[in-house]
Amino acid sequence: MNVLVTGAHGTVGTAIADHLADRYEFTLLDVEEPDDAPGESVVADVRAYDEIRPHFEGQDAVVHLALVPGHGGPGDREVGWSAPFAENLEAIANVYEAAVDADLESIVFASSNHAVGMAEVRNAPEIYHDEGYRIDHTEPHRPDSRYGVTKSYGEDLGRLAAEAHGIRFYALRIGSVRDPEYDHPYGDAERGVDRGDWERGSEPYEEQVARMRGTWHSRRDLAHMVECCLEDESVEWDHFYGVSGNERRWLDDLAHARETIGYEPRDNGEEWESPPE
């Protein structure tokens, strides 16, 4: 299977390539050429339709990860408009239009837990300590930021592409995927220690661990979920929570992902009692 990956050299893209390069013929698209990559690498900007369109020829699927920086990240809850924010909406539309025009079979979209993030905002920090709060795949959009709004938009436009144009669409509401060094439920806490934000064992450190025990999506589980979507032929459009088999997850539709696309996570945040040595 030929698969185009946009934003391929970021944290999520490298997780996919690292674990699936032997299964798929990847074309790895990004705005800069990497030092090395397990597949064909091309340089193009998703904001420029004419730049990206040729790279969709001969592809079976696209995994859309690219994000234009500067429009406000997951923690930015301002309600406003900016050029980068608008450019992200345009980039999503460009990718979907190119996929439909090139007659691809499917789109896998890197959505985010922030598309429903207000559920966390309204229930934190209790939600981090497994106090029974759960949301499933029927939860309506509740974005917690402009970043979350772009993900909600991507999901809705993907549904339109599926229902109006017959391309299968999969949105992954990803929890917390990290670079290899921090690929564990202590990752955000340890990164804060490395930056000098707090000390190991402090209250902020422990809160980061508690949150990650719920939202962690290990790199291999993330790649497995993408593989499940690429191999599926039954879905018209759907969305799935990108989390590992964490016992205290509040993004709780693993049964739906298992029954629909065969997702079987291997990792669980509760199995870690300390960060790696």
β content, as a range? 5-15%
Number of strands: 7
Proportion in helices: 25-40%
Helix segment count? 9
User: Which of globular, elongated, flat, extended, rod-shaped describes the shape?
Assistant: globular
Summed up, the domain count is 1
Order of helical and strand elements:
EHEEHEHEHHEHHHEH
Please give the alpha-carbon distance between the first and last residues.
38 Å
CATH architecture: 3-Layer(aba) Sandwich
Task: Explain how this protein is built.
With 277 residues, this protein is an alpha/beta fold. It has a single domain (2-184, 217-271), classed as Rossmann fold, CATH 3.40.50. It has nine helices and seven strands, in the order βαββαβαβααβαααβα. It has helices spanning 11-20, 49-52, 83-101, 118-123, 146-165, 187-195, 203-215, 219-231, 254-261, and strands at 2-6, 25-30, 40-43, 61-64, 106-112, 168-174, 237-242. It has a seven-stranded parallel beta sheet with strand order 3-2-1-4-5-6-7, with helices on both faces. Helix 1 (11-20) links the parallel strand 1 and strand 2. The radius of gyration is 18 Å and the shape is globular. The chain starts with a strand and ends in a 16-residue tail after the last helix. The mean pLDDT is 93.
